[in-house]
Amino acid sequence: MKIAYIVSNYNKRGGIERCTAELCERLCHDNEIHVYTRNFESKQNLPIKFHKIRVSKLPSILDCFSYFLFMIKATKEAKKGDFDIIHGGLEPDIITAHSCHRAWVEFKKRNGEFLRYLFNPAHHIILFLENRVYKQNKFKKIIAVSTGVKEELIKYYNIPESKIEVVPNGVDLSRFKKDTQKRKEIREKFGFLNNDFVLLFVGNEFRRKGLQFIIKALPEIEDKKVKLLVVGGANKKPYEKLAEKLGVFDRVLFVGKQKNTSDYYSATDIFVFPTLYEPFGLVILEAMASSLPVITSKCAGIIEDFTDDLKKYLLDNPRDSYELANKLNLLMQNPQEVEKLGNTSRKFSEEYSWNKNAERITNIYREIEKSKRK
Asked: HEC states along 216-232?
């Protein structure tokens, strides 16, 4: 098949970007793959044709307007290519719904963040594009990354259930795994002692993903040797001030964005992610593949298939730092439970390989291609 992908950035650092890259890498040997993008990183010599769509670069707060222009230009260029499948863009055959932005906006309104929504142009641009694609109804199929996203699309856009297929994201099981050598290197690099118990948070949207709740929980954790390692590129100053106010500044370490996040999973002991809204939760799956116990929110899409052992450490209220501290204390008091839960996490993640993800999406492509020939 001749397949076009439209994605703003192509790399393996962001969630949506990584999902596209992993899929393309698996399909490019048996299909003709074209990627329309603003920027791309591809270190491997793979048979993928990149089409760089040039748009004016604006300051980060106005980047949504560049994204809007990119979507228009990329869609126009892809339509010239006589493709069997166009995945993404404004007039696609197939869309991957990594979230429902309208649902996220409604969540912000309900939680007293209406002004944040109102004065952020990105929300308005994304909502306009989302509404345009779904309302014009030219797509053949939507891939929802979780049942929760599927239900939101039906609720807010009245999309027939038959046009939505749930295909969860995958994880690179060879990259994200327990690595004792990397654990030693990273812990030595940042000065962690052998008996330090290190919590990990990974994410770029600190506020939405609940970093503040972890910091608030630290004073309530009985073992004062517990440290928090924060990987991500958001503004850290408000969170450093919070940590200082609570007397835990010396127990929180911000390391910024990292290319090899897999190393940081290996270096830590529990992954903590009290997110307020999470359509899937790719970082949760990566942590589990790395054999880490996970404490996260019940709103995360990935938890839909959790076993009872894994559900035991889900948060009823991610804003409740006392609940979070209690679950951490309960888990850390039992080293055997930490090890057992880590092994359960790894076993769970093995059902979510990128190969399985690519196989399911390929089958959807074939159905669409067949229907277009009729």
From this structure: HHHHHCCCCCEEEEEEC
